[in-house]
Amino acid sequence: MSKFRKKGGNELPPISTASLPDIVFMLLFFFMVATVLRKNDLKVENILPNADQTEKLDKTRTVFIYIGKPSAQYRNAGTESRIQIGDKFVDVKEVKGAVFEEINKLRDELRDYVTVALKVDADANTGIVNDVKKELREANLPKIIYITTQQEAVQ
Amino acid sequence: MAKRSAPEINAGSMADIAFLLLIFFLVTTTIDKDKGLIRQLPPPIDENAPPPPVIKNKNLFIVQVNRNNDLLVENELMELKDLRQAAIDFLDNGGISAGEEGYCDYCQGDRLSDSSDNPNKAIISLTSDRLTDYDTYVAIQNELGAAYNFLRDREAQKRYGWKFTEKSAELNEGKIVGEAAKDAVKEKLSVIKDLFPFKLTEAEAKQN
User: Fold this and answer.
1) Where are chain B's structural domains?
2) Thinking of the domain A50-150, which architecture would CATH place it in?
3) Predicted confidence band at B30 (pLDDT cuts at 50, 70, 90)?
4) Taking the CB of residue B174, how many other CB atoms lie within 10 A of it?
5) Which residues make beta-bridge pairs with A66?
6) From the list B30, B32, B138, which residue is nearest A153 (CB)?
7) Which chain A residues are Cβ-neighbours of B207 within 8 angstroms?
8) How distant is the Cα of B66 from the closest Cα of chain A, in angstroms?
9) Three-state SS letters, chain A
């Protein structure tokens, strides 16, 4: 009997999954390359305001200043809006020094024409932002950018 | 003794490991898309500088915002959504009559005598309170920027057939190839910029 039966003639051959790892690795490499690990970890709340007349930021010659209320695990820093540059909270008077410290971390050829990017929480007040701007003006760093999310500003 | 062949390594779990890594990177990735409003701060205060020239009242567009985020434009209450058009009307006014010095031949405004003389004379003054919300402040900056962008786009469209904002974005993203082409675009952009120079002064409201 069995002599005449065709060997597995009716069954579909199993799909080979041998190339699955390759595909997954390809995706993996893409994300590894695209990933920018956050350099400084954010200690303030940072929900950005909306604007639609925006321009893109050239990342390489930029120093970031974060302003917002300290987030939950940093409540000992108070509940008022604070300024964060690099990894630490700074006072308005220390802004200049901290910004120059960050500029010194940039590559030599990029140190001229530095842009200061202000990432300010939408709930913050303009007072603290104006204080920072005054410091930047005195430090002769005139180019600033208010980082926003891309959305219409007027609802 | 019989020769044993080396056992084959089971590669079945390779996919699992790769997936694990993949998911890790998927979660940690933030594809950066920082965009924003670029502004220029004034130079540091120089005490020896000569006193600034007196600006005619009609060339000044005064925007004030208080701690309740109410907007006062030229001493009248205004909604945020009307600010863009009001700023465009002011900048585009071109109040000097034809034939006189400083006549604005590219303006399409109402040419009122009590509004700005010429776009390069027109200055917008923004006064904010310390307690103004930052998102309102950014929205105002955005609307004022939009007014300039609208006028620059219109002028570039008329002269060169493309939009100012689109072309300058292309230039910044390196989409324009070749030094000669870049220089040509830069020159045209600066012509438009000179026609509608961005003049915004900022001040903080005095505390009483």
Assistant:
1) 57-204
2) 2-Layer Sandwich (3.30)
3) low
4) 8
5) A84, A119
6) B138
7) none
8) 11
9) CHHHCCCCCCCCCCCCCCCHHHHHHHHHHHHHHHCCCCCCCCCECCCCCEECCCEECCHHHEEEEEEECECHHHHHHCCCCEEEECCEEECHHHHHHHHHHHHHHCCHHHCCCCEEEEEECCCCEHHHHHHHHHHHHHCCCCEEEEEEEECCCCC
CA angle centred on A53, ends A50 and A59, rounded to 5°: 85
B52 in contact with A, Cβ within 8 Å: no
Going by C-alpha positions, the residue among B82, B75, B104, B111 that lies closest to residue B197 is: B104
Contact across the interface for B43 and A32, Cβ inside 8 Å: no
Q: Measure in Å the smallest separation between the Cα of B204 and chain A Cα atoms.
A: 8
ipTM: 0.76
pLDDT digits (tens, 9 = 90+) for A7-59: 555 778 887 777 887 888 888 888 778 776 666 677 888 888 888 888 887 77
pLDDT digits (tens, 9 = 90+) for B44-103: 877 777 777 788 888 888 899 988 889 988 888 988 888 999 999 888 888 777 777 778
- Residues of chain A in contact with residue B85, where contact means CB-CB under 8 angstroms, are none
Distance from the Cα of A47 to chain B's closest Cα (Å) equals 10
